[in-house]
Design goal:
By secondary structure, the chain is an alpha+beta fold. It has a four-stranded antiparallel beta sheet with strand order 1-2-3-4, covered by helices on one side. It is elongated.
Length: 111
Amino acid sequence: MSKPMGFKLAGKEYMVCKLKKSLYELKQSPRQWYKHFDSFMRGKRHTRSYYDPHVYYNKLQGGEYIYLLFYVDHMLIAFKRRSAIDKLRDLSSEFEMKDLDEAKKSAKHGD
């Protein structure tokens, strides 16, 4: 990365700029996004699965679990009651989201 034209500081010409955020479409962008997402979920008391880092869960009162599964830019929230799922919508305050309503089971090929 080079400094913008006209950006000069006397005596500091040898210095470079440090990025405080990852830039879109750089190789490290997905990793930076995942680190931010992981930190956010853990802050909301969700546990990342030991077996699959794309699965988060939280044990609610009454012993029930709510699951959040994601892959690339798709996310599935699984729970018995819609009200508990709606509580996870606060993700939209931190991440850009679009609700596609309930998941649908697709037919297998050849059935």
